[in-house]
Amino acid sequence: MIVAFSVTPLGVGEDVGEYVADAVRVVRESGLPNRTDAMFTSVEGDWDEVMDVVRRAVAAVEARAPRVSLVLKADIRPGTEDGLTSKVATVERYLAPDADESR
Length: 103
Fold this sequence. Notes:
alpha+beta, 4-stranded antiparallel sheet, 4 strands, UPF0045_domain, Thiamine_BP, MTH1187/YkoF-like
């Protein structure tokens, strides 16, 4: 499964990067495949592993902020591995200059 999630501390002002970094650090230290972009962090693994990482990432922010917002989206597809890479590669193939435009 792939989970894309965003953890946002509330009540700490506008500069939240330091708090978000605490959450991302938890994800990166988990050893699970992951990616972070400007809006979400995606992590891939089985249900229990991924949800444990999300829980710990939220707890890391919660330890320093009076309130936390969590947005989560999951792609639950048993038997699929390396989805973080393969899903993007599929789109990139269609975007390639030599891709068949008639699709």
